[in-house]
Amino acid sequence: MTTETSRLRRGGGRAARKAARSEDAEQINPCPPGQSGGQYKPLSDSDIERIYQTALKILDEIGMADVPDVLLQKALSKGANINELGRLSFSQTFVEDIIDGAAKSFMFYGRDPKYDFEVGGDKVYFGTGGAAVQTLDMDNGLYRPSTLEDLYDFARLVDTLTNVSWFTRCCVATDVPDNRDLDINTAYALLKGTQKPVGTSFFIGEHVHPVVEMFDMVAGGEGKFSQRPFCKSHISPIISPLKYGEDAVDVTLASIEHNMPINAIIAAQSGATAPATLAGMLAQTTAETLAALIMVNLFKPGYPMIFSNWPFVIDLRTGSFCGGGGEISIMNAASGQIGNWLGLPTGVASSMADAKAVDAQMGVEKAIAALSAGLAGSNMIYESSGMMASLLGASFEAFVLDDEMLSHVYRTIRGVEVNEETLGFEAIKEAVTGPGHFLGGMHTMDAMQRDYFYPQLADRDPPVTWAEQGANDIWLVAKQKAKTILDTHHPQYIDIETDKRIRQTFNILL
């Protein structure tokens, strides 16, 4: 064989392998959502036990204030008490009976069944959250008030992102002043933009019924939504420290009436509405999330509820909220670990960058938080995509970058599979006694797609190639991809006749 023939054959083999890789890229995902977490344990078992026992002591000896009458009467009738502080208190036995009877998992449905997934166990999924009032404008790179059109655009963008398993409205349509119109139009934007599972919030319980009426129209008739509820209700049932919120109880009762899963979010802030110490923060917020679990299960035992303890951090020098950093990352990871220890469907928050621009600060803050929460094994990780400026802003570019980041996170969670095939004894023997390398071997080819993720946005080219192609930074690359998606992806998820009926019934502004 001549040198030239050998060179061409090697080159042809490389080209063939590259072509095969491109052909298979859409078929094989080495890091899909739903990986098994729990590898990272920031708390020891004894740590968790002490935090849990302190939480029980808080619920018994300190108790809850501002209890709406409907909840107070229900709790007292089931064995709760008014303690010496005049607050509603729950004994350890009372709390543990509630935990024993609570839902340990539930199915979260998409309008398209391919997006269904089970919440519970050790499976990890990333999705969105937030209530940003500003959007990072892709044209001028500055923040402006978020609009209903932005919300719809975010929904259809997320519709294309593999690693964002559900879409909870990430921004508030500040151009819709009426609260009822806002709740209805928010839900409509979700329906119009994606068939993934969705989530939304309600100002008052009375707004749940018309939104479900609209959901029924899309689902095919009265009562159809409750058979496969594809939307969850976000509530903030506790006003920290240790007070119930009346509106949240009303929304809870309305949600239960329509079989809408509940995400009960506790969002205390360290040093402001909860202790500054991490352990004290976790003790109080665990107690508060248990108080939310009690509220829901008193009205309907075993009802699907996400145990969403989101410990938030403030900069104690200024009092401003901090979405990024080591403290918030480790506390949310620990929160997920506690929820898993209790055996409940868990939710935490991550990736809420303080950065305003799509820059290195954003990448560092998001990656630390997402990886910590994912490895800790929380079932539903909120705020994981698109959130910027300490939750004040949302970014289209950040969404597409976060989606790629989450592939790396899922790959890390997946870990190392050790078996006869992956140990590669025969492949090592073949390489040593044969060509002296592993390039092009079947063992390498099999591992190429199965075990490795190849980013589309991150640049792995040599510096000279990067320079020849314009020396673009990642912000520009992400902006181009986001704009391409929004220019080309216009799904028709509501048929014309149904859309007409919705618009005749409700004041749809989109």
Task: Write out key terms for the chains shown.
single chain, 510 residues, alpha/beta, TIM Barrel, nine-stranded mixed β-sheet, 47% helix, globular, disordered N terminus
Describe this structure in words.
With 510 residues, the chain is an alpha/beta fold. The protein has a domain at 99-412: Trimethylamine methyltransferase-like (TIM Barrel, Alpha-Beta Barrel), CATH 3.20.20. The chain contains 19 helices and 22 strands. The chain is globular, with a radius of gyration of 25 Å.
SSE topology:
Blueprint: H1 3-24, E1 35-36, H2 45-62, H3 69-77, E2 81-82, E3 88-89, H4 92-101, E4 105-108, E5 117-120, E6 123-126, E7 134-136, E8 143-145, H5 148-158, E9 167-168, H6 179-193, E10 198-201, H7 208-219, H8 224-227, E11 231-235, E12 238-239, E13 243-244, H9 246-257, E14 262-266, E15 269-270, H10 278-299, E16 305-309, E17 312-315, E18 320-322, H11 326-342, E19 346-349, H12 360-376, E20 380-382, E21 387-388, E22 393-395, H13 396-414, H14 420-423, H15 425-433, H16 442-450, H17 463-468, H18 474-488, H19 496-505
> Which structural class fits the helix and strand makeup?
alpha/beta
Strand order of the largest sheet: 1-6-20-19-16-14-11-10-9
The global form is globular
**Whole-Å distance between the termini?**
68 Å
The CATH class of the domain at 99-412, by name, is: Alpha Beta
Mean pLDDT, to the nearest integer, reads 94
Helix content: 40-55%
Largest sheet: 9 strands, mixed
- List how many beta strands DSSP finds: 22
Beta-strand proportion: 5-15%
Number of helices: 19
| Uncertain runs | 1-18, 20-25
The CATH architecture of the domain at 99-412 can be given as Alpha-Beta Barrel
CATH fold label of the domain at 99-412: TIM Barrel
